[in-house]
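Recap slide: Adenine DNA glycosylase, sequence and predicted structure.
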Amino acid sequence: MSTFVKAPQPLDAEYFRTRLLGWFDQYGRTHLPWQQDRSPYRVWVSEIMLQQTQVATVIGYFERFMQRFPDVAALAAADQDEVLHLWTGLGYYARARNLHRAAQCVVHEHGGEFPVESVEALSGLPGIGRSTAGAIIAQATGHRAPILDGNVKRVLTRLHGVEGWPGRPEVERRLWQLAEHYTPHWRCADFTQAMMDMGATLCTRRRPSCLLCPFEADCVAHARGEEHRFPEPKPKKEKPVRQTLMLMLRDEDGRILLEQRPSSGLWGGLWGLPQFDDQGALEAWLGHEMSDSVVQGQWRCFTHAFTHFRLEITPVQAHLPHQGNRHAEAGRRWYDPDQPDSIGLAAPVKALLESLSSSTLL
């Protein structure tokens, strides 16, 4: 692992801005959906969606989200289930829960207006950190607010040869100093977009297009032939592996039993299949809750990767001949795979439910 050393002095700020904005005027992205009819609300939703997600993936989700929730009041008034449903497939569902909570805060505590007067005020909303707040202010109001998202970190660490993992406090402080140094008081929205575009389209994680970069002659990493080494990755730790059994219990009408997960934690607030640590726990639950059910076997195990661990999922088929009305309690629902409800589903659960069409009756 590299040790942290003081990076070279920054470039002249005016030189940097002139070259960056010159490149942006020719090659930058200016026709993204959230760049049209800009408002703090539209920019905010896009920035949250773009966290750890590529632009190409976000565009469709953003357009559907805006169609259903055209303003912050509509989002604040929505049920969390519907918000999570429109988020299904984007992952990192805490973003959607925080988005919903933040909308309610804006409506009930700020009179429906985003507190874009300062980074500090805006970052007081759920799910908005310093960099996201800066991006919203710069993009929506044109006021000066530095940012430091993943793309910008990559550009600055390579340009200056900044050693160390950017998650380390001393490295992050150095990068914020550089971001502050370069951010202008004019064309702030374009400058912010240009920094993000540089990282997303030229200074990419793999195979950066150095020959097309306006800073090819200035980049420390390029001069060393070490673009691949910056930014330094987070120190690796072996991801632990967990196992779970997912019960696919189908009634005589072909519907699947779902349970709503707790509001926080893994897949918080989403609907999913009942989960168990082992076969004994699953069978004990069936014997107590669904005594006339019949277990019909297991599907092949598959793995779903999270940030900090891997989950090995084994689907278990079961059939309930006579459902009656005894299971209509809070936190449970019977879901028809052929007529799906508008509810939030975790990606592996959604895939399993889609496989249970009428042609695959248990």
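The beta strands are 241-251, 256-260, 271-272, 275-276, 294-298, 302-305, 310-320, 332-335.
Residues 1-5, 358-362 have pLDDT under 50 and may be disordered.
(End of recap.)
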